[in-house]
Amino acid sequence: MKTILLSVIILLPIGCNASAAEPDTLQGKALFQKNCTSCHAVQTRIVGPALRNVSHRHSEAWLIKFIHSSQSVIKSGDTSALRLFNQFNQTVMPDHPSLGDQDIKNIISYIRSESNNAIAKLPITMAPEDNDPYKGESGFVRQVVYIDLPGTHVPILPNDYRTWFFIAVLIFLSLLTLFTVIKAKTLIVNLKEKHGQKTITGDNLS
Questions:
Q1: Shared domain check, 43 and 60
Q2: Tally of structural domains, the chain
Q3: Phi/psi of residue 60, nearest 5 degrees
């Protein structure tokens, strides 16, 4: 009897830990909606990449480290983190120190579930990884030019000073061109009127 009781006492914490390690998809959905939806969606790109099948592209351990502190992973020289950071115009992903490892596992479980549910619904024309219709193009093209392609396009971010400066220069040049055209037309009209007056004066003298 003592041996059985001792076995139960030893195995009980192991059973509890195994149960706790199981990801909770519903809890993951709630955490995803609270912490992630301002920048991410499963099937479409928003500010950050679409997260469909993200667990196929990165290990669970890598995702946990990246979600906890993306900049720490980037500064470590991780090639995948650097590629994502540069691909998305070096937009800094906020840290999530309040999310525990199990919370992130729950979120990954929800994303995996949504990815599996979405496979049959995806159109043939769906863009490739990260749902980026402008993959390989410059940040300016990807942000400003809107083409009728699948996916959600990225707005110009407030801290993207280079793009804003470029737009300001374009607006200035456009206004300068318009001003020059108007002044040129006014000058032509004045010259025509002056020439016409000289012609009339010459006719009167003759």
A1: yes
A2: 2
A3: -60, -40
Share of residues in the chain with pLDDT > 70 (%): 64
Q: Show the domain range for 69.
A: 22-152
Q: Looking at the domain assignment, is residue 94 inside a domain?
A: yes
- Condensed to tens digits (0 to 9), the pLDDT of residues 143-160 reads 555 444 444 445 566 667
**Cα separation, 132 vs 112, whole angstroms:** 20
Render pLDDT for 176-191 as a digit per residue (tens, 0 to 9).
999 999 988 888 888 8
CA 70 to chain centroid: 15
The two tokens of residue 35 are 């912490």
Q: Are residues 184 and 109 in the same domain?
A: no
Distance between CA atoms of residues 99 and 108, nearest Å: 12
Which amino acid is located at 98 in the chain?
S
Residue 11 inside a domain? The answer is no
User: Which residue's structure tokens are 């801290």?
Assistant: 159
Give this prediction's pTM: 0.50
Give the distance from CA 171 to its chain's centroid: 26
